[in-house]
Amino acid sequence: MKALYLTGKAQVEMRDIPVPECPDDGLLIKIDSVGLCGSDVRTYSVGSAKINYPVILGHENAGYVEKVGKNVTGWKVGDKVVANPAIPCGKCYYCVNKMPGLCDNIQVAGTSFPGGFAQYMVFPGDMLSRGQIIKVPDDADLEPMILAELLASVVKAQDDLKVGMGETVVIVGSGPIGCLHAQIARLHGATKIIMAELNKERLDKCHEFGGTHFIVSSQEDLVQRVMEITDGRGADVCIVACPSAKPHQQGVELLRKEGRLCLFGGLPKDNPWTTMDGNLIHYKRLRIFGAYSYSAADFAKGYELLAAGRIDTRIITHTLPLEKMPEGVRMIQQGEAIKVVLKPWMEE
Q1: In a domain? residue 304
Q2: What average pLDDT does range 164-189 have in this prediction?
Q3: How many alpha carbons fall within 13 Å on the CB side of residue 266?
């Protein structure tokens, strides 16, 4: 089979390797679609302490059952599937206390074991036993289902934030995460959804995905514009969906009293520090939330939203052959694409 290996920073190599053996308690999957995630873009561009080269990335995976382990029941060859890629141990403090997304020993496809940047991959038995593989209807399109993983994180964050009816939500960052946050905020009943982005070309691409107001923050004062839109009161919620500290600072300024700030985007490892006005946090009684990971239940919610047609999946703007992964990275980084899907069986 063909597999795309990341062999170093910004270095990939397409290799012909044997198809992996199907484990007795798992499934062998023929990959139809694999999402090129923001974390893949970062790992490709700057590396990651979580991987050892060479590695097969890819954790947003959808495909067909190619083989069924001899000890597995309830699945058959040809079934369409999408999988939650993060496998909690089920035994650590966080798993036992209903926080599996923060598991101390979590295993993740594309990091802990080979991912979907290949024509075939193994879904291990732990995925099956913990209900992390979802069977997709035969008549459903597999490609959009790769968004379930991103949606799981968004659903979890907004459940924690308790975004509600009639609220004003500011979303900083108009990549796929920002676009999904806008759609989920709309489904929760938010009436003003303000999307902010440094890159005008990228912001222009997201006008159809739930926003009501759009701010090019490299050209306009974000805090001032939010105050104008909210008649000087400020927003109920601010979600920072980009890897920048400046919106953290702006977030505490543009929120109303008792507003909620969500730090969804991680910061660069070599400069992870942020500064916020402590007096504003104190006197406005602001609440600040970190957002990271999700549970199997959140993943299932994301899938159900997709299956019910409640999500505009046109945020997938480009589909490329697997070997064009570096081109997909470039398109995302330059704002030409919102979400890129790779196809291991597509010819150049």
Answers
A1: no
A2: 97
A3: 8
Residue 306 within a domain:
no
Q: Which CATH number characterizes residue 259's domain?
A: 3.40.50.720
In 3D space, the residue among 169, 103, 117 whose CA is nearest the CA of residue 4 turns out to be 117
Per-residue tokens: 237: 């919620």
- Give the phi and the psi of residue 314 in degrees, each rounded to 5: -70, 0
**Is the pTM value of this prediction over 0.70?**
yes
Q: What CATH number should be reported for the domain holding residue 30?
A: 3.90.180.10
- Phi then psi for residue 262, to 5 deg, are -110, 120
**Does 70 map to a domain?**
yes
Question: Which residues are CB-neighbours of 246 under 8 A, at least 6 positions away?
Answer: none
Domain assignment of residue 348, yes or no: no
Domain span at residue 179 reads 152-290
- Whether 206 and 182 have beta carbons less than 8 Å apart is answered as yes
Relative orientation angle of helices 38-46 and 325-333, to the nearest 10 degrees: 100
Residue 270: band (very low, low, confident or very high) from pLDDT cuts 50, 70, 90? confident
Average pLDDT, rounded, for the chain: 96
Q: Do 88 and 165 belong together in one domain?
A: no
Burial environment of residue 84 by CB neighbours within 10 A (0 to 12, 13 to 18, 19 or more) = buried
Domain count within the chain: 2
pLDDT exceeds 80 at position 307: yes
Q: What angle do CA 92, 97, 101 make, to 5 degrees?
A: 70
Picking from 247, 237, 224, 214, the residue whose alpha carbon sits closest to that of residue 167 is: 237
Cα 153 to chain centroid, rounded: 6
Q: Are residues 178 and 79 in the same domain?
A: no
**Which of 291, 243, 293, 329 has the alpha carbon at shortest distance from 85?**
293
Same domain, 136 and 166: no
